[in-house]
Every structure is written in C-alpha cells, then in structure tokens.
C-alpha cells in the first residue's frame, strides 16, 4: 500500500496518539479470504476499539464490538456523520482512494440533526409507497428474463449475468425508469462500473453519467409524475430541490444495488457449498430465508462502513477518542462478537445483526424489507428455474474480492441442465 502522506511510516504513530504505534493496516491479503480471523486477532490484541491505518497510513479507529458499534450509531451528538469534522484533512491528498466515501457531499449520507431527519423522512415516505407484492412480481419477471438469457447454455457466471443486474434493474424500476429500454440498460452498466469497476473501466466517468441521467429522470418526473419513488420525493411537502433529490436518489440506488447483489451471491454460495442446505433447498423455501439471514450475520455484504467523526474528546471501549477522529464501523466484526455469540454459534432465526447499521443513520425503513424482497425473489426464482444448479468449480477455488468495505465474490461460476424454452 503506498504511503501518500510522505514522511510517516506505518509504524510511526501520528503526533499525540500513542495507540497508533501498534495500529493495524486496514487491508491486505487477510481481508480477501479470512477477515473473521483478522477481527479475532485484532480483538485479542486491541479490545473492542482498535487503532488502524487507512490507505496511505491515515490513522482511524475500527470499532469491533457489538455494544460499541451500537453505542456509536445511537449517539449522534458524540459521533457525527459530517466528514468535514475530520482532523486528518491536512494529510489527505486530492486523489486519495477513499475520497468517494469520505469527501463531503450534500446528500442525506452526510447530513445531521433536523436536516438529516428531513432528508431521511422524504426517502422513508417514498419507499413506503412501494408495494412489496408488486416489487416481488417485478423482481421475478426480471429474474426470468435474466435466466432466459443464459439458461440455454448450461453454464454461467452469476455475479455478472444475474446477481448484479437484478437489484440494479429492480431499484431503477422503483425509481420510475422504463424497463428494458437501452437507456436503462446503459444506466445499469454505469452503476456497476461506478460502484464496482473492473479492469479498463472508468468509474469517475461512469458516476458522472449516472448523475446526469438521474437529473434527467428528476426533470422528467417533475413534468410527468408517476407511481414511483422519484415522483413521491418530488411531491413531498419537505420541498427538496432537484439537486438534493438527485444526490439522495443516487444514495438510495447505490445502497440497494451493490450490497443486495453481494447478499444474493453470498447466499447462493452458502446454499451451493454448505451441506446443511444442499439437502433441503429443493424441498422447500424455509432454508432460503435461513441462508439469507445467516449471510447477514457471517458474510454481511457491507463489512465496514466509514464512518463517524468524533464531535469532542470522548471515551469508547477504553480508548481516548480525540475530537475529529474518524471511526470505521466494523459491522462484520460486531456481528461475530463473541460477547453476543459465546459458543460462536450464530442463530439464523435471530435478526438483531447490524448489517443495516443502527440508529438515526441506519438504512431507512423500509429499505431492508425491500432488499429482502429482491434477494429472496432472486434466489428462489433461480433455484426454481434451474433446480439442478451446482457450482462450476471446486468451492476452494471461489475467491473474495480484495475489499475491506464489501464482502463479495470475484465470480460465482455455475452449471445446470440447459433450460428449454
């Protein structure tokens, strides 16, 4: 990892911060395959709040404990979302890799207090207008179209042909984009590139195109409203500007697309590789729900979330947190905290995980329910249409993306009997 701050090596603490002398680099090979092992080691060495270095040896705190993450997310007066509070901005280069996640934007993600309640309230009202049965029907229709596109071949790579495309199309349908149009397909592709760029992709250009197309959608819906999320946001008495609605729609779409795609794929991986499920899946739907919930505990799509910024000097998990320090929410580590799972057994029937975060800035209700409809419909429809679906490689050959933020496979190759239409 390059040291973009110049003079300080990763073993040298920032001035006035003795804890960062033993800080852990947040990244590297452990994250690709066995982050749970890394979290265990960090918890043993540092406790519930660990000093870490982000890209370029920028100091931060990783909150690993379930009670501590719950505390941070429910005390906005101590740990706030406006990243302009950060005490490290003098050390951050303009091309810092994490800038898209921490650079202040006028979106609901960075607002606080009454302004956050206003913006989040508009999103909640707009999402509450989504009929979950209608969404399930639409997701099934999208799933069947996608399966038809590869079903005759007897094999496919599910990340690219299915898991990413389905939630992208579904959330754009919720926002009022016409289904099946070339325009919508281009936007689906640009969303994928901006959130999950591959070799040769230009994520910045793709993100710009997403913003332009969503602005065009907002203008279209101002002129011709419909029964969709965008129109309901425009009609809300809170009176958001077009620019605010564009920012917040992009936040909603991004939050729905990539995490749901990884939730679908991580669940399919579990169903195809774990013998507890292999016997039962074809016999009924109960185990699909169990698998979806187990993934949120053990392989949650959003591993870590950056972040919160300390409003003033305070204590957390026995650490002195300075005003302006950055805290990374270790959602995956908190979900596997031995304090809440003393026998290291995760009960699939329990849904008090932190995968949708917690507190005022959690994923706005009813977004988790809508994500569940998308993921469940995607998994069930695939298993119904291709009942003899099996992995196309040995389970040991599946690899995780080298990301400390998202938990997702690089690919999920499968084989099945070609479907005849």
Automatic annotation (TrEMBL):
Comp. bias intervals (Polar residues): 1-11
CDD domains: CYP_unk (cd20623)
Chain residue ranges for the region called Disordered: 1-21
InterPro entries reported for this sequence: Cyt_P450_B (IPR002397), Cyt_P450_sf (IPR036396)
Tree of life domain: Bacteria
PANTHER family from the UniProt entry: CYTOCHROME P450 YJIB-RELATED, P450, PUTATIVE (EUROFUNG)-RELATED
Family: Belongs to the cytochrome P450 family.
The protein's name: Cytochrome P450
């Amino acid at each position: 990892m390059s040291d973009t701050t110049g003079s300080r090596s990763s073993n040298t603490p920032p001035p006035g911060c003795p804890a960062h002398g033993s800080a852990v680099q947040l990244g590297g090979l452990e994250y690709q395959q066995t982050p749970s092992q890394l979290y265990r080691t960090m918890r043993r060495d540092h406790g519930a709040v660990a000093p870490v270095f982000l890209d370029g040896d920028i100091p931060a705190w990783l909150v690993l404990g379930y009670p501590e993450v719950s505390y941070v997310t429910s005390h906005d007066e101590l740990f706030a979302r406006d990243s302009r509070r950060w005490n490290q901005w003098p050390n951050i280069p303009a091309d810092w890799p994490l800038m898209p996640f921490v650079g202040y934007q006028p979106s609901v993600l960075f607002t606080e207090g009454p302004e956050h309640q206003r913006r989040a309230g508009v999103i909640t009202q707009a999402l509450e207008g989504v009929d979950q049965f209608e969404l399930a029907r639409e997701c099934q229709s999208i799933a069947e179209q996608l399966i038809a596109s590869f079903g005759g071949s007897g094999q496919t790579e599910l990340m690219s042909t299915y898991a990413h495309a389905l939630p992208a199309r579904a959330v754009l349908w919720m926002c009022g984009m016409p289904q099946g149009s070339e325009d919508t397909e281009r936007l689906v592709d640009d969303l994928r590139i901006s959130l999950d760029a591959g070799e040769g992709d230009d994520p910045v250009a793709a993100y710009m195109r997403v913003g332009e197309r969503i602005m065009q959608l907002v203008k279209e819906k101002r002129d011709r409203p419909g029964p969709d999320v965008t129109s309901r946001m425009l009609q809300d008495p809170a009176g958001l500007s077009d620019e605010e609605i564009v920012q917040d729609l992009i936040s909603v779409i991004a939050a729905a697309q990539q995490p749901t795609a990884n939730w679908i794929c991580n669940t399919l991986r579990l169903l195809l590789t774990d013998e507890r499920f292999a016997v039962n899946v074809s016999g009924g739907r109960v185990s699909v729900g169990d698998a979806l919930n187990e993934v949120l505990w053990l392989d949650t799509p959003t591993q870590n979330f950056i972040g919160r910024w300390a409003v003033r000097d305070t204590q957390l998990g026995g650490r002195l947190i300075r005003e302006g320090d950055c805290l990374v929410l270790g959602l995956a580590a908190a979900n596997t905290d031995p304090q809440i799972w003393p026998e290291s057994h995760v009960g699939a029937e329990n849904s008090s995980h932190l995968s949708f975060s917690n507190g005022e800035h959690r994923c706005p209700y009813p977004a988790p329910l809508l994500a569940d409809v998308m993921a469940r419909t995607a998994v069930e429809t695939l298993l119904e249409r291709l009942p003899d679906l099996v992995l196309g490689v040995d389970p040991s050959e599946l690899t995780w993306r080298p990301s400390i933020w998202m938990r997702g496979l690089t690919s999920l190759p499968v084989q099945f009997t070609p479907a005849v239409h």
